What we know:
Elements: H1 4-11, H2 15-40, H3 45-52, H4 56-64, H5 71-80
Helix pairs in contact: 3-4, 3-5
Organism: Eisenbergiella tayi
GO molecular function: DNA binding
Protein name: Transcriptional regulator
Amino acid sequence: MKTLNEFMNEQLENTEFKKEYEKIQPEMDVIRAIVDARIAQNLTQKELSERTGIDQADISKLENGTRNPTLNLLKRLADGMGMSLKIEFVPKAKV
């Protein structure tokens, strides 16, 4: 049985798959950052909701990718976790 990494590496050899995967990568990075920060603080979605005033259902939608966050919403999440929001532009990797 293949691991997820093995499967992904195999799929990324397909140029169409790679192109679509790279399109959604920024959204996936935002989702991963939200989930990782929340889990690192041992917060449930409900606890984060209570700290931020953002409905728990909306936090769930953010984390499962069915809702795109605004910059203001990201700031509220960061504040609720006692963190600062940092957004940066980085050079693309040369192929």
